[in-house]
Amino acid sequence: MDKFLKEAIIEAKKGLREGGIPIGSVIVHNDKIIGRGHNRRIQNGSVVLHGEMDAFENAGRQSASVYKACTLYTTLSPCSMCSGAILLYGIPKVIIGENQTFLGEEALLKSRGVQVEVVNNQDCIDLMTSFIASNPELWNEDIGE
Question: Is 18 among the residues known to form the active site?
Answer without folding.
Answer: no
